[in-house]
Amino acid sequence: MNRYHQSEQQIFNESQIIEEAKTDPGRFGILYEKYYRQIFVFVFRRTGDEDIAGDIVSDAFLKAMVALRKFEFKGLPFSAWLFRIALNEVNMYYRKSSRERVISLDQTNIKDMIAETGEKETEENRQLVMRLLSSLSPEEMQMMELRFFEKRPFAEVGEILGITENNAKVRTYRIIDKLKKILDKTSNQ
Amino acid sequence: MSGYKFNIDPRPPKEEKIAEHRDFGKVMHNYKRMTNPLYLTPLYRYRKVFLSLLLVLVVAWLVSEYGDEHEQAIQHHKADSTRIADSLAKTMDRDK
Q: Which among A19, A94, A128, B39 counts the fewest CB atoms within 10 Å?
């Protein structure tokens, strides 16, 4: 099974467009059109505002264009690199503003997290999960967003966060363990 | 306070809003502005720098133009004062 959302052929074809775009920036338009919506939705989920997301996405694509010469194809999808730049821009936005970080998640995400710990889905457990999420650091939260709320493969999570696939797995399970311990403790009381 | 605002089951972004912000031409324009070397970019592109430079040049011209006139006026005034003082001295000598 492929570790990414794209086939190896698609990733290879894309690498050729990237090489062309390094000498002819106009070719970057193909990648822009292809990924614009994905990056916009990614940023929108983290800001909750279309206009803020639009500005952040424009900055992210501009930075990607400027840094494209440094991009080296290592068999990973280009989108992961774009998501990483977009995430850095989102982090920069929150560093500059005093706004609360927006975390988008579905009811099913909470269910999945409870299921991962092997506990029953009760209102109390749901509340506990929310409380645990509130106590996570921004780095841990980003891990949860990418892995549990957006269902990305570990390899992609690692690439976006700039860590190895194994490290991404370890960190994710550490958070799940933390949650499991809290849920166990409350169910035993 | 956690510092997080949870959006449970959020609405997706509006397609027309996405289309409104999608503009590769603008990104390309900003890219060219960012990457073109300064010496190749016409100065009028940088409005603030251009206006500041223009202001400095106008002030320099005004100083050179009217500064000279002022200097001449002072010299003229000094010459007049000397002439008056001399004539006064002569008159006083004559009165004696």
A: B39
